[in-house]
Amino acid sequence: MWQYIVKRMLLMIPTLIGAALVVFLLMQVVPGDVALLILGSDQGGDVNLAELDRLRANLGLDRPLYEQFFSWLWGIARFDFGTSLWSGAPVIEELWIRLPLTLEVALFATIISTLIAIPLGTLAAIRQDTWIDYLVRVVSIGGLGIPAFWTGILIILFLVIYFEWSPPLVFVPLWEDPWENFKQLIWPIVTVGYRNAAVAMRMTRSTVLEVMREDYVRTAWAKGLHERMVVIKHTLKNSMLPVVTIIGAEFAFLMGGLVVTETVFTLNGLGSFVVDAILHRDIPVIQTLILLTAFVIVFANLIVDLVYAWLDPRISYR
Amino acid sequence: MANVMHDGQIAITPRQLQDMELQKSWARMYAWPAIRKFIVTKPLGTIGGVIILAMALTALFADALAPYDPYEITQSLQFKAPSVQNWLGTDEFGRDMLTRLIYGARIALFIGLVAAFVGSTAGAFLGVLSAYMGGKVDLIMQRVMDVMLAFPLLILALAIVSVLGRSVPNVVLAIAIPIIPRTTRIVRSSALSVKENMFVEAARAVGSQHLRVMARHILPNVMAPYLIMLTAQLGNAILVEASLSFLGLGTAEPTPSWGLMLSGSAASYAEKAPWVAIFPGLAITLAVFGFNLFGDSLRDALDPKLRHRT
């Protein structure tokens, strides 16, 4: 097992470097360069050429491209992501302020949606074609088509009309006041989690239905086992593999969902930070955040693979 | 070519008549039964198809269907509730919501269709190339695709718009590029098995060029996964366009884009004019829903093995 983990982690390195290269090259496409952006030439201002040269030398833009790439990569390895062009603060500081909120929403959205989806999906499968099955299917089909920002707007609409709710002005961290924090973040969590819950529910339902038709499940019934035993011990455990995969794969969608959800709820997290950075053309911030997303996804895939190997003993660890 | 005779009538040659007969019998023998079977066995897919058809017709005949001008600003009509004059109410500039939704179908369908087509087609070509060439080319291409798959669709689209700047062609490109690796993977795996067929070897043996083998023998045989990916990505493309526009990074005002109609102030006006926030979202949901239903059923009808992979 340990060998497998190490090998799997080593395999991640080329992908991560590749992702860094993609982000780096993408940002080279920006018309002009960062120095021009800092001096505000895109707003039509006149640029002092001596100043421009000095700034370029300062930022290392006069060096060859590969040197720039490696020094940027070396910076990332030391958690030095450069300075925000907009605020002038180091990017890492800006990230640090916003990370807890985004992390909390992403984590709780995944956990809560999984906790809801697996029992409901299973229930829909073992009570196939009853009202509960239809309800679960309608709810999950809805979750696939409804854009997260619209769910968010509808929730706000509902809260404003019925509870005279107003968006919170200051974010209260979990460790300061858990109840206040819960009240602030529950709706964004629901908004982001709905899609995940829908996808996981559909997957659970269809795999449980499949496994229920297996011979060993029929044997379990024939032995006279209680329904709960058959479902939990024989069916559920064997239907979890595709569900785990899909929850991991949905992590990518979650990232996109966070961007729009944080914007709808005016939360100051990493998602809305991406949007702000793009609107301000804050290249170092955009670069860092996009790369960070890719890293998160690659790690999520790793975790899925590990859970997979742990759940299914047939997968060899070589 | 049909010959126009001096009295204005079009003469049809026997050859053309034969062609037309053939076409008619093709439709009678294959197309109609296939469609009929799809309708009977895939009721949900048919609902999806009807939604898509309705959307396409709305987009096509927007000029005739829309009761007002989508761009005309009338401050006195600001935030009128749904009524006989304005079925779905008016927005903050007094523009008719129904009119803007009808024209919005054009934007959504155009951007979605072009982006999904460009992305899936480029992906399909790369997938066939990767599978056919094999070896180092395949290895390198697949590693590049792996790297691209590490970026979520919306995030990669955001990054591309941020460097290219916002305009309709750039938005199309930003949505199309993330679709490429997703299609490449699926088409490549189909092409790998097609490649092993005797007829590919035979084509090579009679001296066909690589390009010809790929175009004439492999590409036609991976049409099913290609079509499945195309429809599956259409819903996605519409959703990403709406999200980009919603974030203020897609199409710009006054374009009647559904996502843009929900952006910025829509949420803050929600209490005063809920119809502004409700109907565009409903339109997006219905469109994505239609394409998803249709795509799912098409996949089941064409290639059920792809169920767990698209």
Describe the 3D structure:
The complex is a heterodimer of chains A (318) and B (310). Chain A is an all-alpha fold and 318 residues long. Chain A is built from 12 helices and no strands. Chain A has helices spanning 2-28, 34-38, 49-59, 65-77, 91-126, 131-145, 148-163, 178-212, 215-222, 227-264, 270-279, 283-311. Chain A is globular and about 85 Å long. Chain A starts with a helix and ends in a 7-residue tail after the last helix. With 310 residues, chain B is mostly helical. Chain B contains 12 helices and 2 strands; from the N terminus they run ββαααααααααααα. Chain B has helices at 14-41, 43-60, 62-65, 97-133, 135-149, 153-164, 168-195, 198-205, 210-218, 223-246, 258-261, 274-302; strands at 3-4, 10-11. Chain B has a two-stranded antiparallel ribbon with strand order 1-2. Chain B starts with a strand and ends in an 8-residue tail after the last helix. Residues 1-5 of chain B have low confidence and may be disordered.
- Taking all Cα atoms into account, the compactness measure Rg of chain B is 23 Å
Secondary structure: helix percent of chain B: 55-70%
Contiguous low-pLDDT stretches of chain A (5 residues minimum) are none
Q: Class by helix and strand content of chain A? A: mainly alpha
Mean pLDDT of chain A: 83
Helix segment tally of chain B = 12
Number of DSSP strands of chain A?
A: 0
Unreliable spans of chain B are 1-5
User: Shape of chain A from CA axes?
Assistant: globular
Tell me the strand percentage band of chain A: under 5%
Rg of chain A computed from alpha carbons, rounded to a whole number of angstroms:
24 Å
Outline the biggest β-sheet of chain B.
Answer: 2 strands, antiparallel
> Largest protein interface?
A-B, 49 and 45 residues
Biggest sheet of chain A, in brief? none
Give me the side-by-side strand order of the main sheet of chain B.
Answer: 1-2
Order of helices and strands of chain B: EEHHHHHHHHHHHH
Mean pLDDT of chain B: 84
Shape of chain B: globular
